[in-house]
Structure formats: C-alpha cells, structure tokens
Amino acid sequence: RRPWVTLKAALSLDGNMALSDGTSQWITGEAARAESHRLRGENDAVLIGSGTLKRDDPSLTVRAVEGPSPRPVILCSDPAVLEGNYNALRRDAIVFVPEGTAIPPERSGHVYAVSSSAARPDLKAALEKLAELGLARVLVEAGPTICSAFIAAGLADEYQLFVAPVFMGEGRKITTSIRLRRMDDAIPMTLRGVRTAGRDLWIEGGNPCSLDWLKQ
Ligand SMILES: NC(=O)c1ccc[n+]([C@@H]2O[C@H](COP(=O)([O-])OP(=O)(O)OC[C@H]3O[C@@H](n4cnc5c(N)ncnc54)[C@H](OP(=O)(O)O)[C@@H]3O)[C@@H](O)[C@H]2O)c1
C-alpha cells in the first residue's frame, strides 16, 4: 500500500544539505546533478516540502538526460502556498495538506487533506494516497526537514547520496530532527555501492527492513 521510496540528497562531508541561511546551490557537481536527473526519469513522482518549494522553486523536470518527468508532489501545512506562482504547482502537482484544511474547489483532484501529525500531513498517509493514485516509485528530493522525517520514520527504502568533498560547518543536516541517546539507536543503512560521480562521492544504500521485504 506504499510506493517504493528513494531518498536522494546532495550533502557535504559533514552531512549538511544547506548552509544555515538556506544556501544549497550547488553542493555537488555536474555529474552528480546528471545522475539526479536520471533518477527523476526512473520515478513516477518527485516529492518536496514547502520549504524547498518556497526557497528554490524547482521545476522538478528531467533535463540533463532523456526521459519522462515525474509528477511533482508537495507536502505543506499552509494552504496559502497553493496561491503562489511556483513552477512545480504549474506542473499538475499533487499537494498534501493536513486534514481539516479547506481545499478550494478548483484545486480538488490535486490537493489532498490527509491525516496529520503535529499539524503536518502524515508521511505514511501521503504515501498511501500516492499508491492509491497509481504512483509506484517516489523520489524524495526534499530539504533536510522532510528528509530527516523520512529517515526517522523508516520510510526511505533506498538512498542515493551524493557527497561533495567539502566541509560546510554549521548548517542544515540531513538528520536535522533526529536526536539519539544511544549508539544502539543509530539508524542503519545497508551499503549497496560506493563510487564517484565526477568530483563527488556517490553512495547507494538501502533500508535493511525494505531489503528483507524485497527478498521475501
Ligand atoms: N542538498 C539537497 O539535496 C537539497 C535538496 C532540497 C532542498 N535543499 C535545501 O533545503 C532547504 C529547504 O529546507 P527545508 O527543510 O525547509 O525543506 P523541505 O524539507 O523540502 O520542506 C520542509 C517543510 O515541509 C513542510 N512539511 C509538510 N509536511 C511535513 C512533514 N510531514 N514533515 C516535515 N515537514 C513537513 C514543513 O513546512 P510547513 O509545515 O510550514 O508547510 C517544513 O518546514 C533549502 O535551502 C533548499 O535549497 C537541499
């Protein structure tokens, strides 16, 4: 009842996805960015949060390689975002808002109110709706808030991490919302491949639980 979720992120060696002021373009180089476009082409949907929508206004299309562009999916808690003239919204985006949000009639069929936790659309509920809509593969290309929420919830089945050989110091980490007390609680990733993409390190991994499920 859920799509297969691939989490893609560009990181520094110290785990930052952006500087504290939100600057993130471009952490990784051209080769890594071309791989990101290939990944978009392999997925039915590409998911971001309202933070990335507002800050970067990405179009989320496939450009550097041939292939179909995935359907944009946006998670947000403020319906005012729907009034913005954002590139992804112009591309028939699916938007998830928390339950109880009034959806303008002209937006019905694109905007879904799903159950919420902490006044934000619940990730599992949003994924279940995407599966219901026939979207079987979802690429998460969001910022640190949503990425860390997916990792913490164990909802990232696969990881595609592009690590630039730079240190960024104090910044916005991929694990921004995760606080562990014991090493035993560390969230594991099964390493599936390590190579380079141009000047960057390219780490492919999987969620051990998802890989066990695939083997069944
Ligand atoms: N390096 C990379 O790979 C990469 C990729 C993408 C973005 N970025 C950078 O990341 C920065 C933006 O970071 P961000 O963390 O704000 O972006 P984000 O994770 O894409 O969006 C976060 C926002 O999504 C909304 N949201 C809705 N449902 C949520 C849920 N269930 N859990 C958590 N959040 C939920 C929240 O805002 P509301 O509740 O207010 O709607 C939250 O503040 C920008 O600087 C961008 O350039 C970097």
Which properties best describe this structure?
single chain, 216 residues, alpha/beta, Dihydrofolate Reductase, subunit A, 9-stranded mixed sheet, two-stranded antiparallel ribbon, globular, binds NADP nicotinamide-adenine-dinucleotide phosphate
What would you note in describing this structure?
This protein has helices at residues 30-41, 50-56, 87-90, 123-132, 144-152, 208-215, and strands spanning 4-12, 16-19, 45-49, 71-75, 94-98, 111-114, 116-117, 120-121, 137-140, 158-164, 171-173, 190-197, 200-206. It is of the alpha/beta class and 216 residues long. It has one domain: Dihydrofolate Reductase, subunit A, CATH 3.40.430. The radius of gyration is 17 Å and the shape is globular. The model has no long low-confidence stretch (mean pLDDT 95). The structure holds NADP nicotinamide-adenine-dinucleotide phosphate. The site of NADP nicotinamide-adenine-dinucleotide phosphate has 28 residues, from β1, β2, β3, α2 and β8.
